[in-house]
Amino acid sequence: MTIQAADAWSNAFVTALAGAGERVTLPRRAVARLVAARDGHFTAAQLMDDAEAVGEPIGRATIFRALDLFTNLGLVERVDLPDGNHAFVACEAVHHHHAICTRCARSTDIDDGALGEVLASLRLGAGFRVTAHRLEVFGLCADCGAAA
Question: pLDDT tens digits, residue range 82-96?
Answer without folding.
Answer: 888 888 988 766 667
